[in-house]
């Protein structure tokens, strides 16, 4: 089999589902297109679920059970995916993030995950557990995925990472003074890397701030651009340049309006002085 991607079932519930689906399809001797014809999905969709680039929906799992004659096995296995703390659509984004040549991030109120220290990230997930938003198991899942995403930045060549933080990100204390101090230290270290640019969008930018929601833009090795956005229930990748290009333009405008990296580091250092 040419270019057959190996699967790691320990990676996530979605990866386990994908491996099980592939094994059942192989046992039938069907190609992805043939299974898709039986299910009413494209072969490309089957491939994306098998390789954990797209999560299985309840309708997908039920259709797979019917096509493969597996009762409700896949539907029951899919519940572990649907009950995950990882938003639908996010695994598809991560698959692109780990190969991006350039990343552009804008965040409000909280340090972006790729720049978080383990303690800061744990404080965020602990807060979500206490509110009942996620379970402890789901918190562990989030932290494990975050660690893998951060590790993927240490690739050669390193991706260029541009980050604009709303000032609220560095002023809002998360996890207490000690954890916040270490997090601000991490930002300063990040700004010193040769493949990064870190800027702060100050409060007094006012209406000139280009975005009111977090924005993530990726440039892939073939120079294609994609955007990722989240609602409370799901994440969505946008590849259509009719929609991506205005976001890229607005991001460049935001970079022009934000503080320089040197001035941004000075703001972070000033905030850091307020922590013991």
What does this protein look like?
The protein is of the alpha/beta class and 276 residues long. It has two domains: 13-82, lambda repressor-like DNA-binding domains (434 Repressor (Amino-terminal Domain), Orthogonal Bundle); 90-272, no CATH class. Helices cover 50% and strands 12% of the residues. The chain is built from twelve helices and six strands. A six-stranded mixed β-sheet has the order 3-2-1-4-5-6, sandwiched between helices. A hairpin with a 4-residue loop joins β5 and β6. α2 crosses α3 (43-50) and α4 (58-68) runs antiparallel to α5 (73-82). The chain is elongated and about 65 Å long. Pfam families: DUF5753, HTH_31. This is Transcriptional regulator. Residues 21-74 form the HTH cro/C1-type domain.
């Amino acid at each position: 089999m040419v270019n057959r991607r190996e699967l790691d079932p320990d990676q996530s519930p979605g990866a386990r589902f994908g491996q099980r689906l592939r094994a059942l399809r192989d046992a039938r001797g069907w190609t992805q297109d043939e299974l898709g014809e039986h299910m009413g999905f494209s072969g490309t969709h089957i491939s994306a679920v098998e390789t954990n680039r797209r999560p299985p929906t309840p309708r997908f799992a039920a259709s797979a059970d019917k096509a493969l004659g597996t009762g409700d096995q896949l539907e029951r296995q899919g519940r572990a995916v649907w009950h995950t703390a990882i938003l639908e659509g996010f695994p598809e984004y991560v698959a692109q993030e780990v190969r991006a040549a350039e990343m552009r991030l804008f965040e409000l109120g909280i340090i972006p995950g790729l720049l978080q220290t383990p303690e800061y990230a744990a404080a965020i997930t602990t807060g979500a557990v206490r509110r009942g938003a996620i379970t402890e198991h789901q918190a562990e899942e989030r932290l494990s995925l975050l660690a893998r995403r951060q590790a993927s930045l240490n690739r050669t060549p390193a991706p260029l990472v541009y980050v604009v933080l709303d000032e609220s990100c560095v002023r809002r204390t998360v996890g207490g003074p000690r954890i916040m101090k270490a997090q601000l230290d991490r930002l300063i270290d990040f700004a010193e890397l040769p493949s990064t640019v870190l800027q702060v969008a100050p409060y007094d930018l006012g209406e000139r701030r280009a975005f009111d929601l977090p924005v993530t833009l990726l440039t892939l090795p073939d120079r294609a651009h994609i955007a990722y956005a989240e609602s409370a229930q799901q994440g969505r990748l946008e590849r259509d340049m009719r929609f991506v290009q205005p976001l890229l333009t607005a991001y460049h405008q935001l970079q022009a309006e934000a503080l320089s990296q040197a001035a941004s580091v000075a703001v972070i250092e000033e905030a850091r002085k307020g922590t013991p």
